[in-house]
Specification:
By secondary structure, this protein is mostly helical. The chain contains 4 helices and no strands. The relative contact order is 0.20.
Length: 82
């Protein structure tokens, strides 16, 4: 199971900025750190790296609005499938 650091590292890789680690309340969509293409890339990376399958139809933009919310949502999904 990935920890918070591992999840933030993937978010940093996909977003292309370490600001997602430095500022856990960064508005990911409002600041254009994430867009629809990066969300798809993030979903693919979660599946490839951790076997966490998230359908684009299940994606909730508000649930991934900040790095903190992103980590909480992914951890909740992992717990549901445990």
């Amino acid at each position: 199971m990935p920890n918070q650091t591992a999840l933030l590292k993937i978010l940093e890789d996909v977003a292309g900025t370490d600001e997602v680690i430095r500022n856990p309340e960064l508005e990911l969509f409002g600041s254009q750190v994430l867009d629809s293409m990066r969300v798809v890339e993030l979903i693919v990376r979660l599946d490839e790296d951790f076997s966490i399958t998230i359908s684009p139809a299940e994606f909730d933009r508000e649930a991934w609005a900040t790095p903190t919310k992103f980590v909480q949502d992914v951890e909740a999904r992992i717990a549901e499938n445990a």
